[in-house]
Design goal:
three-stranded antiparallel sheet, 3 strands, alpha+beta, GIY-YIG endonuclease
Length: 73
């Protein structure tokens, strides 16, 4: 199952939303600096995650959250 996840960086006071098939691996990549966008915000904490039945649905939900604003979600 695909997962849409929301991360929070207390050092930057920012949220990040993404989608993945392997949540634990992706979270580890964020916290090891493998993603250029999230590299500066280490450590990232998982705030919320939602399982989706398909990649298409996960990407749609990710876009919806980004469009509305992560804090409002």
């Amino acid at each position: 199952m695909y997962v849409v996840y929301i991360l929070f960086s207390s050092s930057l006071n920012k949220y990040y939303v993404g989608s993945t098939l392997h949540l634990a691996i992706r979270l580890d990549e964020h916290n090891r600096g493998k993603s250029p966008f999230t590299k500066k915000g280490i450590p990232w904490n998982l705030i919320h995650h939602i399982e989706c039945e398909s990649q298409i649905r996960a990407v749609q939900l990710e876009y919806k959250i980004k469009k509305r604003g992560i804090r409002r979600f």
